[in-house]
Amino acid sequence: MGTLEASFRVEIAAPLDRCYEIAADIEGAPKWQGTLESVEVVKRDREGRPLVVNTISDASIKKVSSRLRFSYQPPGGIAWEQEEGEVKWLTGSWAFEDAGEGRTRATYALRSDPGRILSMLLRGPVEGKVKELLTKGAAEGLKREAEATG
Question: How many CA atoms lie within 13 A of 131 on its CB side?
Fold first, then answer.
């Protein structure tokens, strides 16, 4: 199978700073990001933000554990990469663009090599469903959270 790549974009009726603030609250993300079940902060950066975290995500076919390292580019985005975990490698990001009139365009993207065993489970229509579950769920979760609390 090789690389699994997916992204999902939403327009949110909330300002860019608010969307970034919600996404940067890594510890609060399981509340609104459907597939993310738990986050444990291992290390923080100089500003007190989560730098390295252990996560458990429900990828529908299997729960996947990862240790992720985050980098922050306020207010335009957040990126992460797996340091260790159950997939060969994983990177992800949030990108935020001002859409005018207090609105934000947010894109959630993931790239991964799930490895041989997970790849066997991700064949055919299952692959598309998992991609949508992981990306659309996060993007729409951020939209609901930002619009409800904005």
Answer: 19
Residue 129: CA count within 13 A, CB half-sphere: 10
Domain residues for the domain of 18 are 4-149
Chain-centroid distance of CA 11 in Å reads 16
95 to 9, 73, 77, 139, 150: CA distances (angstroms): 9, 9, 4, 11, 19
Query: Which H/E stretch holds residue 114?
Result: none
What sign does the dihedral 35-37-43-48 (CA atoms) show?
A: positive
Among the listed residues 12, 25, 20, the one whose alpha carbon sits nearest the alpha carbon of residue 102: 12
The one-character DSSP state at 16 is H
Give the CATH number of the domain where residue 63 resides: 3.30.530.20
- Residue 87 sits at φ, ψ, to 5 deg, of -100, 160
Quick: pLDDT tens for 56-93: 988 666 788 999 999 999 999 999 999 999 888 999 99
For residues 78 and 100, what is the distance between their CA atoms, to the nearest angstrom? Answer: 21
CA contacts within 13 A on the Cβ side of 58: 9
CA 121 to chain CA centroid, nearest Å: 21
pTM score above 0.90 = no
Place of tokens 């949508």: 132
